[in-house]
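Appendix B, example 12.
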Amino acid sequence: MSPTTRPEPSVQRARAAPALPEGFTGASPYEIAERFAVRELTREQVVDELTRWPYDPSPTSDGYDALIVNQSGTHSWGEVERAADDGLIDEDIYDEIGETMRTNM
């Protein structure tokens, strides 16, 4: 590639994309939900992956400041909540994932 030739945008995105965790089809819970929304995954697959995802602990308040902000690069349960709010997964899937996780704790 010559110095003036720019790679295709999709190539740039692929180079910048984080590696997929082994056993998952997305680099984050939200991405897994996006793949389900565009029919790349079945219902069973999205439930399985979002149930097995190694979520970061949810941030907690220090008792003085009620504002809680997730650190960049973390993958908390909030991504599943956002996926449900954005219509990527339906309420039944959200409930099933939550119930399965509570049962397996």
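Helices lie at 9-16, 29-37, 43-52, 78-85, 91-103. The mean pLDDT is 82.
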